[in-house]
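#structure-requests
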Amino acid sequence: MKLSIITINLNNAEGLRQTIESVIPQLNDQCEYIIIDGDSTDGSLEIINEFDEKIAYWISEPNRGIYGDMNKGILKAKGEYCLFLNSGDWLNKNIIERTIRECTGEDIICFNTYLSYNNTKFEALKYSSSVTMRSFFNRTIGHQSTLIKTGLFSRFGMYNENNKIHSDYEFWIKSLIIGNCSYKYVDEFLSYYDTDGISSKPNEHTLKEMKSILTRHLPTRVLADYEDWFHKEREMETLMWYKRQGILYGFLVFIYKVVKNCRKLSKMKY
Protein backbone atom coordinates (compact mmCIF):
# COMPACT_ATOMS: atom_id res chain seq x y z
CA MET A 1 0.00 0.00 0.00
CA LYS A 2 1.62 3.21 -1.17
CA LEU A 3 -0.90 5.89 -0.22
CA SER A 4 -3.52 6.54 2.46
CA ILE A 5 -5.88 9.42 1.65
CA ILE A 6 -7.45 10.78 4.84
CA THR A 7 -10.53 13.01 4.93
CA ILE A 8 -11.88 14.60 8.10
CA ASN A 9 -15.37 16.07 8.18
CA LEU A 10 -17.77 17.82 10.51
CA ASN A 11 -21.23 18.80 9.23
CA ASN A 12 -20.06 19.57 5.71
CA ALA A 13 -22.15 17.12 3.72
CA GLU A 14 -21.95 19.02 0.45
CA GLY A 15 -18.18 19.42 0.67
CA LEU A 16 -17.75 15.81 1.77
CA ARG A 17 -19.60 14.52 -1.30
CA GLN A 18 -17.40 16.65 -3.53
CA THR A 19 -14.28 15.23 -1.88
CA ILE A 20 -15.43 11.60 -1.97
CA GLU A 21 -16.54 11.77 -5.59
CA SER A 22 -13.08 13.05 -6.59
CA VAL A 23 -11.30 10.20 -4.75
CA ILE A 24 -13.40 7.03 -5.22
CA PRO A 25 -13.14 6.77 -9.04
CA GLN A 26 -9.35 7.01 -8.85
CA LEU A 27 -8.71 4.41 -6.14
CA ASN A 28 -6.60 1.37 -6.98
CA ASP A 29 -4.90 -1.48 -5.09
CA GLN A 30 -2.03 0.81 -4.02
CA CYS A 31 -4.28 3.42 -2.46
CA GLU A 32 -6.78 3.38 0.41
CA TYR A 33 -9.37 5.89 1.55
CA ILE A 34 -10.07 6.76 5.22
CA ILE A 35 -12.79 9.10 6.52
CA ILE A 36 -12.93 10.46 10.07
CA ASP A 37 -16.27 12.14 10.78
CA GLY A 38 -16.86 14.23 13.90
CA ASP A 39 -20.35 12.93 14.72
CA SER A 40 -22.04 14.98 11.98
CA THR A 41 -25.81 15.53 12.04
CA ASP A 42 -26.29 17.09 8.59
CA GLY A 43 -26.57 14.03 6.35
CA SER A 44 -22.83 13.36 6.06
CA LEU A 45 -23.24 9.79 7.33
CA GLU A 46 -25.74 8.97 4.60
CA ILE A 47 -23.17 10.08 2.03
CA ILE A 48 -20.43 7.99 3.65
CA ASN A 49 -22.72 4.93 3.67
CA GLU A 50 -23.46 5.48 -0.01
CA PHE A 51 -19.76 4.84 -0.77
CA ASP A 52 -19.08 2.43 2.10
CA GLU A 53 -17.76 -0.44 -0.06
CA LYS A 54 -14.95 1.71 -1.47
CA ILE A 55 -13.84 3.19 1.87
CA ALA A 56 -11.12 1.23 3.70
CA TYR A 57 -12.07 2.63 7.10
CA TRP A 58 -14.45 5.22 8.48
CA ILE A 59 -15.80 6.23 11.85
CA SER A 60 -18.17 8.86 13.17
CA GLU A 61 -17.74 9.95 16.78
CA PRO A 62 -17.40 13.23 18.73
CA ASN A 63 -14.50 15.10 17.19
CA ARG A 64 -11.26 16.17 18.88
CA GLY A 65 -10.73 19.17 16.65
CA ILE A 66 -9.09 19.35 13.23
CA TYR A 67 -5.77 17.84 14.26
CA GLY A 68 -7.21 15.35 16.72
CA ASP A 69 -9.27 13.83 13.91
CA MET A 70 -6.30 13.92 11.51
CA ASN A 71 -4.35 11.98 14.14
CA LYS A 72 -7.12 9.38 14.27
CA GLY A 73 -6.71 8.92 10.54
CA ILE A 74 -2.94 8.51 10.82
CA LEU A 75 -3.36 5.70 13.36
CA LYS A 76 -5.50 3.77 10.86
CA ALA A 77 -3.30 4.43 7.80
CA LYS A 78 -1.61 1.43 6.16
CA GLY A 79 0.01 3.37 3.34
CA GLU A 80 3.67 4.33 3.09
CA TYR A 81 2.49 7.94 2.62
CA CYS A 82 -0.45 9.94 3.96
CA LEU A 83 -2.37 12.63 2.07
CA PHE A 84 -4.83 14.82 4.02
CA LEU A 85 -7.72 15.89 1.82
CA ASN A 86 -10.31 17.46 4.12
CA SER A 87 -13.99 17.73 3.25
CA GLY A 88 -14.54 20.46 0.68
CA ASP A 89 -11.14 19.88 -0.96
CA TRP A 90 -10.96 17.62 -3.99
CA LEU A 91 -8.45 15.81 -6.18
CA ASN A 92 -7.49 16.84 -9.65
CA LYS A 93 -8.70 14.45 -12.35
CA ASN A 94 -6.59 11.38 -13.19
CA ILE A 95 -3.89 12.32 -10.68
CA ILE A 96 -3.61 9.38 -8.25
CA GLU A 97 -1.65 7.11 -10.60
CA ARG A 98 0.86 9.91 -11.27
CA THR A 99 1.00 10.63 -7.54
CA ILE A 100 1.82 7.03 -6.69
CA ARG A 101 4.56 6.93 -9.36
CA GLU A 102 6.18 9.88 -7.57
CA CYS A 103 6.40 7.96 -4.27
CA THR A 104 10.10 7.31 -4.69
CA GLY A 105 11.27 7.27 -1.09
CA GLU A 106 11.55 10.94 -0.14
CA ASP A 107 10.14 11.89 3.27
CA ILE A 108 7.87 14.68 2.00
CA ILE A 109 6.63 15.03 -1.59
CA CYS A 110 4.95 18.32 -2.48
CA PHE A 111 2.69 19.00 -5.48
CA ASN A 112 0.91 22.23 -6.49
CA THR A 113 -2.57 23.35 -5.42
CA TYR A 114 -5.48 25.12 -7.06
CA LEU A 115 -7.19 27.56 -4.67
CA SER A 116 -10.98 27.44 -4.99
CA TYR A 117 -13.09 30.50 -4.22
CA ASN A 118 -16.72 29.34 -3.83
CA ASN A 119 -16.12 26.76 -6.58
CA THR A 120 -16.42 29.53 -9.17
CA LYS A 121 -13.00 31.15 -9.28
CA PHE A 122 -9.68 29.30 -9.20
CA GLU A 123 -6.09 30.38 -8.64
CA ALA A 124 -3.00 28.29 -9.37
CA LEU A 125 -0.62 28.11 -6.41
CA LYS A 126 2.84 26.71 -7.11
CA TYR A 127 5.18 25.80 -4.29
CA SER A 128 8.95 26.05 -4.13
CA SER A 129 11.24 23.39 -5.58
CA SER A 130 13.21 23.58 -2.34
CA VAL A 131 12.34 24.61 1.20
CA THR A 132 14.36 26.68 3.65
CA MET A 133 13.39 28.73 6.67
CA ARG A 134 12.95 31.63 4.28
CA SER A 135 10.36 29.61 2.36
CA PHE A 136 7.97 30.00 5.28
CA PHE A 137 7.88 33.83 5.12
CA ASN A 138 4.97 34.14 2.73
CA ARG A 139 3.28 30.76 2.92
CA THR A 140 3.46 27.25 4.24
CA ILE A 141 3.06 24.20 1.99
CA GLY A 142 -0.44 22.80 1.70
CA HIS A 143 -1.18 19.46 3.32
CA GLN A 144 -3.92 18.83 0.73
CA SER A 145 -1.20 18.54 -1.94
CA THR A 146 1.65 17.05 0.09
CA LEU A 147 2.47 13.41 0.73
CA ILE A 148 4.01 12.66 4.14
CA LYS A 149 5.76 9.43 4.97
CA THR A 150 3.59 7.82 7.61
CA GLY A 151 6.65 6.85 9.65
CA LEU A 152 7.52 10.51 10.21
CA PHE A 153 4.67 10.76 12.71
CA SER A 154 6.46 8.21 14.88
CA ARG A 155 9.73 10.06 14.48
CA PHE A 156 8.50 13.62 15.09
CA GLY A 157 5.23 13.01 16.90
CA MET A 158 1.62 13.37 15.83
CA TYR A 159 -0.03 16.69 15.06
CA ASN A 160 -0.12 18.96 18.10
CA GLU A 161 -3.77 19.01 19.19
CA ASN A 162 -3.22 22.09 21.33
CA ASN A 163 -2.96 24.20 18.18
CA LYS A 164 -6.23 25.30 16.63
CA ILE A 165 -5.07 26.02 13.08
CA HIS A 166 -1.36 25.62 12.38
CA SER A 167 -0.23 22.18 13.57
CA ASP A 168 0.68 21.29 10.00
CA TYR A 169 2.98 24.36 9.99
CA GLU A 170 4.54 23.13 13.25
CA PHE A 171 5.06 19.70 11.71
CA TRP A 172 6.87 21.23 8.71
CA ILE A 173 9.16 23.19 11.05
CA LYS A 174 10.00 20.06 13.08
CA SER A 175 10.48 17.75 10.10
CA LEU A 176 11.79 19.87 7.22
CA ILE A 177 13.70 22.59 9.04
CA ILE A 178 14.91 21.03 12.27
CA GLY A 179 14.77 17.35 11.25
CA ASN A 180 16.28 17.98 7.78
CA CYS A 181 13.87 15.53 6.14
CA SER A 182 14.23 14.86 2.44
CA TYR A 183 11.91 16.87 0.19
CA LYS A 184 10.76 16.43 -3.38
CA TYR A 185 8.78 18.90 -5.47
CA VAL A 186 6.56 17.72 -8.33
CA ASP A 187 5.38 20.42 -10.71
CA GLU A 188 1.87 19.02 -11.11
CA PHE A 189 -1.45 20.10 -9.58
CA LEU A 190 -2.69 17.48 -7.15
CA SER A 191 -5.76 19.03 -5.57
CA TYR A 192 -8.17 21.91 -5.16
CA TYR A 193 -8.23 23.66 -1.79
CA ASP A 194 -11.51 25.05 -0.51
CA THR A 195 -10.62 28.55 0.74
CA ASP A 196 -13.69 28.65 2.98
CA GLY A 197 -11.66 26.66 5.51
CA ILE A 198 -10.62 28.24 8.80
CA SER A 199 -6.87 28.14 8.10
CA SER A 200 -7.24 30.14 4.88
CA LYS A 201 -8.26 33.30 6.74
CA PRO A 202 -5.21 34.70 8.59
CA ASN A 203 -5.96 36.94 11.55
CA GLU A 204 -4.36 38.11 14.78
CA HIS A 205 -4.93 34.74 16.49
CA THR A 206 -3.49 32.65 13.66
CA LEU A 207 -0.37 34.84 13.45
CA LYS A 208 0.03 34.60 17.22
CA GLU A 209 -0.17 30.80 17.00
CA MET A 210 2.49 30.69 14.29
CA LYS A 211 4.78 32.93 16.36
CA SER A 212 4.24 30.67 19.38
CA ILE A 213 5.27 27.65 17.28
CA LEU A 214 8.45 29.35 16.10
CA THR A 215 9.28 30.44 19.66
CA ARG A 216 8.96 26.85 20.90
CA HIS A 217 11.26 25.39 18.27
CA LEU A 218 13.83 28.04 17.35
CA PRO A 219 16.66 29.43 19.52
CA THR A 220 16.23 33.11 20.42
CA ARG A 221 19.14 34.21 18.20
CA VAL A 222 17.64 32.43 15.18
CA LEU A 223 14.16 33.76 15.88
CA ALA A 224 15.54 37.33 16.02
CA ASP A 225 17.09 36.91 12.56
CA TYR A 226 13.89 35.39 11.24
CA GLU A 227 11.76 38.29 12.43
CA ASP A 228 14.25 40.79 11.00
CA TRP A 229 14.09 39.06 7.60
CA PHE A 230 10.32 38.89 7.85
CA HIS A 231 9.97 42.66 8.29
CA LYS A 232 12.46 43.38 5.51
CA GLU A 233 10.49 41.08 3.23
CA ARG A 234 7.28 42.96 3.99
CA GLU A 235 8.99 46.31 3.34
CA MET A 236 10.23 45.03 -0.02
CA GLU A 237 6.72 43.82 -0.93
CA THR A 238 5.35 47.29 -0.12
CA LEU A 239 8.05 48.97 -2.21
CA MET A 240 7.37 46.68 -5.19
CA TRP A 241 3.63 47.43 -4.92
CA TYR A 242 4.31 51.18 -5.11
CA LYS A 243 6.62 50.68 -8.09
CA ARG A 244 3.83 48.88 -9.94
CA GLN A 245 1.55 51.90 -9.50
CA GLY A 246 3.44 53.91 -12.15
CA ILE A 247 2.41 57.58 -11.87
CA LEU A 248 1.70 57.28 -8.12
CA TYR A 249 5.19 55.92 -7.51
CA GLY A 250 6.76 58.75 -9.54
CA PHE A 251 4.76 61.32 -7.60
CA LEU A 252 5.81 59.85 -4.22
CA VAL A 253 9.48 59.82 -5.30
CA PHE A 254 9.13 63.48 -6.33
CA ILE A 255 7.60 64.41 -2.94
CA TYR A 256 10.35 62.50 -1.14
CA LYS A 257 13.06 64.42 -3.03
CA VAL A 258 11.37 67.75 -2.37
CA VAL A 259 11.16 67.03 1.37
CA LYS A 260 14.76 65.83 1.42
CA ASN A 261 16.02 68.99 -0.33
CA CYS A 262 13.99 71.21 2.00
CA ARG A 263 15.63 69.57 4.98
CA LYS A 264 19.08 70.14 3.46
CA LEU A 265 18.35 73.83 2.84
CA SER A 266 17.01 74.20 6.36
CA LYS A 267 20.22 72.77 7.85
CA MET A 268 22.39 74.99 5.64
CA LYS A 269 20.54 78.14 6.76
CA TYR A 270 20.84 77.10 10.37
